[in-house]
Every structure is written in structure tokens, then in C-alpha cells.
Amino acid sequence: MSAQETPNSANSADPVDYHATSEPRVALVTGGSRGIGRETVSRLAADRFAVVIGYAGNRELAEAAAKEVTADGGRAIAVQADVADEQEIAALFATAESEFGGVDVVVHAAGRVHLAPVAELDLAELDALHRTNIRGTFVVAQQAARRIRDGGTLVTFSTSVVGLAFPGYGAYSASKGAVEALTLILARELRGRNITVNAVAPGPTATDLFLDGKDEQTIARLAAQPPLERLATPADIAEVVAFLASPAGHWVNGQVVRANGGIV
Ligand SMILES: NC(=O)c1ccc[n+]([C@@H]2O[C@H](COP(=O)([O-])OP(=O)(O)OC[C@H]3O[C@@H](n4cnc5c(N)ncnc54)[C@H](OP(=O)(O)O)[C@@H]3O)[C@@H](O)[C@H]2O)c1
């Protein structure tokens, strides 16, 4: 077999041996102050990532998350940055680089929801969803595409509602449809860099975003829908993210991963 035919001959697409280096890899998590992002911070820190925790307004929660990681012997900092503001997000990535030496994994968990039938939709809410969920994803993805080190990963968030099509979710689902549409295109644009791009699309997950404004009956009805008969916990979803960010998950690329207990 010639060198060219050798399956493991060195080229830029070779798998990265993360275990060969003792330097911790660096993860940047938007929406790291609460919910799925918060749990992802802990989960990636347990995998020895240094973590940059992005948040919008909940400084105390974000700093408490960083403190918890450092108390366990890890490295983490909390940095305020609005995901839709390109200057703030560029500064967030710059802080990750100056504090920890680079960025390997970006988990873009920041997001918002608004529920209303289309006939009653306040268009200002549509604009706000568009700004955070679509513009925010493009702003973060743009910096990620420019700055993630070779061998790294971008994980964004959609929702299983894109497939479930629940009435009232039109504006939110449309904003996440844009995230799904971007996923494979960006994965292809990053050809040659050994960087994966995937979207995780959870079903109902017990966080503020899901629970706020819902009565117990609605929550129980939605919790009963998946064959696994419960809401997801943030930890269920953080495990999926940790897999995608790990060497074991690196062959998954350009995918929308519907992590929802089998609801669809
Ligand atoms: N929970 C579910 O059932 C579910 C289902 C499907 C998909 N998802 C998606 O999963 C992701 C995480 O959701 P979650 O349930 O964990 O939400 P969550 O508990 O409401 O947390 C939202 C996080 O996003 C941050 N954030 C919101 N707007 C931001 C902005 N403009 N700039 C920066 N950060 C911002 C918040 O920061 P502050 O704390 O500072 O406000 C917070 O950390 C979202 O993209 C959501 O759409 C959730």
C-alpha cells in the first residue's frame, strides 16, 4: 500500500489525539448562566475543559458557575456578552484566547422563546426572537468559524418543535429552523479544518425557558409525550453536547441531533 493509500497517513483531516497533549482544551459556552448551558459548563469542566461562561444579565449566576468549576480544581471565567452584538461576542472570544490560549469548542446555548398563535403574534416579539436566536447564532457562528482551533467543534441549539409543529410555536420554531438550515452549510464551509458543526434539538427540558408561564397540567401533558415519559433534565442534554465535543463524537458532523426521549 502506498503512503497515499495508507488510511492513517497524515493530513489535515486526521483525527486529533486530544489525549496526546496535557494542555486543557478550551470551551466557550453562551447561555452558561442558566439551564442547559449552565449544566454544559459543569459537564465540560468535568471533561477537563477550561470554560468561558457567556451570559446576558445574570452575572451572579454566571460567576457562581465559574466559582463552582474553580472550587473543583478546574478553570472557568464568566463574561457578559449579548450574543446578537458582534463587538461583545468578538470581545468574548478575545477574552477566551487571552485567558486560556484559544478556543476549541463553542456551545451556543443562549436563546429565548415566545409563544403565540400567528394571528395574535406581537411582531416586536418576533423581532426579539430573530435578534437573539437568528442574528445571535450567526454572530457566534461567525466568530467560531474564524477562531475555533483546528480539530474543534461548534454546537448550536435548535428545538424538536421544528418537527413537532405545536400550535403557538410558529415564531420560535421559525427562528430555530434558521439554525438548522445553517448547520450543514457551515460544516461544509469549514472543510479542511477538521471542525465539526452540529445543532442539538432538545424536546421539552426542565429549564426556565420551558417552565416559565406554563401551568402544571400543560407541563405534565408535555412530560408524558415521549416514550421515556418525562421531561429532559439539563444534564440529559449536556451529555449529548459533551459527546459531540469529545473525540468519540467527532465523526458526527453537519447534523441536527433530536435529543428528546423519542417524542418524534
Ligand atoms: N428548555 C427547553 O425545553 C428547550 C427545548 C428545545 C430547545 N431549547 C434551546 O436550548 C437552548 C438553551 O435553553 P434553556 O432552556 O437552557 O434556556 P434558559 O434556561 O432560559 O437559559 C437561557 C440562557 O441564555 C442566555 N441568554 C438569553 N438571551 C441572551 C442574549 N441575548 N445574549 C446572551 N445570552 C443570552 C441567558 O443568560 P441570562 O441568565 O444572563 O439571562 C441564559 O443563560 C436555547 O437555545 C433554547 O432555545 C430549549
Q: What is the topological layout?
A:
Elements: E1 26-30, H1 35-46, E2 50-55, H2 59-71, E3 76-80, H3 86-100, E4 103-108, H4 123-147, E5 148-157, H5 161-164, H6 170-189, E6 196-200, H7 208-211, H8 216-223, H9 234-245, E7 256-257
Parallel strand pairs: 1-2, 1-4, 2-3, 4-5, 5-6, 6-7
Helix pairs in contact: 1-2, 1-9, 3-4, 4-6
Please give a structural write-up:
It is a single chain. By secondary structure, this protein is α/β, with parallel strands linked by helices. The chain has a single domain, classed as Rossmann fold (3-Layer(aba) Sandwich). The chain has helices spanning 35-46, 59-71, 86-100, 123-147, 161-164, 170-189, 208-211, 216-223, 234-245, and strands spanning 26-30, 50-55, 76-80, 103-108, 148-157, 196-200, 256-257. Strands 3-2-1-4-5-6-7 form a 7-stranded parallel beta sheet, with helices on both faces. The chain is globular and about 50 Å long. 44% of the residues are buried. The structure holds NADP nicotinamide-adenine-dinucleotide phosphate. NADP nicotinamide-adenine-dinucleotide phosphate (NAP) binds at residues 30-31, 33-37, 54-58, 61, 82-84, 109-112, 132, 136, 157, 159, 202, 204-205, 207-210.
The major pleated sheet works out as: 7 strands, parallel
By CATH reckoning, the class would read Alpha Beta
Bound small-molecule species: NADP nicotinamide-adenine-dinucleotide phosphate
Q: Percentage of helical residues? A: 40-55%
Q: Estimate what percentage of residues fall within beta strands.
A: 5-15%
